[in-house]
Design goal:
The protein has about 290 residues and is of the alpha+beta class. It is built from 9 helices and 10 strands. The longest helix is centred in the middle third of the chain and has 15 residues.
Amino acid sequence: MARSQQANQELTEVLNQLWRLDTNRLKPGTDYTISLQGKAGYVAQGSNYARDRARAPLFTHVNEDKLKSIETYAHFINLLDNYETSTGVSETVTQEELQENRLFINAIMETDVMKCAHQYLVRKGQSPSDPAQFKRQLYDIWFRLYHRDRSGGEDSCGFEHVFVGETKYGKEIMGLHNWVQFYLQEKHDHVDYKGYKARDNKDTPDEDDHVLNLQFSWKGLVKPVGGSFIGVSPEFEVALFTIIFLISTEKMTSVVVKVDEYMLELVVYRHGRSIGTSFPKLLSSNNRDL
């Protein structure tokens, strides 16, 4: 990736507006503490061995009471246990789970972040102005089930892939780009953080960074590198990736933006009318203490 990539101005403006409105973002060092430890090494494609450069977990502490007292996080956490992680295994969605999906969408729609994203999408002619119709559109993008593995039933959806994570043929980790899920999986010893990924020594991350490239194993499988926002609210991620999904009809959309102090590449793959996957890739952060 060339460093000289130009940030997309219009999206940079909109996403910074969302960033400023994200009052549910947790504060590093106060609401949670992370421990970055060592820089992760190279993992060959398809290998499930990674040298552990981090003996301790990534999350030293998260104020769970605070997490669960914020409505959008509380509803978000309820959704994390609704999925079969293995692709090819059909998802059974109960009435209760459908209701949880709707409650989550209703909760995020109450936030300024989602209201701002909605207004922008209406201005761009990408979303209906009626909130109820917009909620249906969000539902289709994030929660409509589809076939990820051709052999099986409807085994996946955007939300499951991006926020919960999936495994493919028991050989590969897909998705799992959400910090709350990462923290909860780590707490239950399902995730083992192996270290951060950085291009060079100038790019060493800080413990208060809100975007990181991580290496980890999950259920015995290794993810050589996964980009993740840290501490941001679920509504912020849904808003940001929904916007990028809707501004393009390409199978894969990638935009470079500067959000707060982070140069990011935001990547979204579509799966028909839904999100296949979406994640941030940290290109650089400009407040390094040199």
